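#help-structures

NK: newbie question. if I give both the sequence and a SMILES, will the prediction place the ligand too? trying with adenosine-5'-triphosphate
OV: yes, paste both and it writes out the complex. here, I ran yours:
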Amino acid sequence: MGLLRVEGLSKRFGGLRAIENLSFEVSPGSVQAIIGPNGAGKTTLLNLLSGLYVPDTGRVAVDGHDLAGRPAHRFAAAGLARTFQNLQVFFNMTALENVMTGRHLRESQALLPALLRLEPMVWAEHRSRARALELMQQVGLGAWTGARADAMPYGALKRLEIARALALEPKLLLLDEPAAGLNPTEAREIDALIRTLAAGGMTVLLVEHNMALVMEVSDRVLVLDHGTKLAEGTPAEVARDERVIEAYLGVEGLVTESATEGAAQGTGGTLDMRGALDMHGTLGNTAPAARQAGGHA
Ligand SMILES: Nc1ncnc2c1ncn2[C@@H]1O[C@H](COP(=O)(O)OP(=O)(O)OP(=O)(O)O)[C@@H](O)[C@H]1O
Ligand SMILES: [Mg+2]
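OV: that's the protein plus ligand as structure tokens.
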């Protein structure tokens, strides 16, 4: 049974069908990626899956709890935590304080015992701080604990958001483009971090445009296009799916002279998803060769 189960989910904005009758599951302990062109509905989906948007129709179950349309804190209480495509960091706080805000829900659940003096508040605070420090080490931010967030580089802030999400001690972690805007070295660090989390049993649902990362870390990939499921399977399966190549690389007109050049140079033999689908990368250079390879598959 899926840790996350989505059935018939739909969300419209006026006349725009951002998510249309979408169903899928995420198995416990797996890493699932959601890919798709800009505007495909990926962030809208994460917003529906974390209680920020109310769906028009459909069901969302987290760990057996039916939560569609419930507020975000109910999703969090069921074991879901997330990061945002656009950083949601408290810039006037230190890095450690940012991570500790993630523990708020857990600690507020422990409020009753604290009020009853079963556990002094000061102990809870101490425990919370110790765990936040541990998480900062885990995401590679051990050197930044006392820094104010506004003094931290972008790559570190992306990891700070992950640490804050982990502070909720989730079963299911949703990441919206964790590698966006990172250089290749930083992206590999995110790659390593996701693998470490997965090895520790975390279930991860990841939206990402960096195909090298997607191919590397995912057990399964779901491809969204215009709010619907275009394809789903292992990274290798979706990489050779004609419809996926079509959705990313578009119209026939993309096959230009450079396609022939690519084929002549021997680059057209296999589909290199890493280049072909990296929409923030060099689509123009790799698309024609990839399309040709796909066409012969
Ligand atoms: N709050 C909103 N109100 C109206 N339209 C919205 C809203 N949120 C998203 N949309 C629209 O829904 C569609 C899907 O947007 P979404 O942000 O989910 O795409 P995405 O796949 O995350 O794209 P990207 O890869 O660029 O992040 C887009 O056409 C977008 O303009
Ligand atoms: Mg998005």
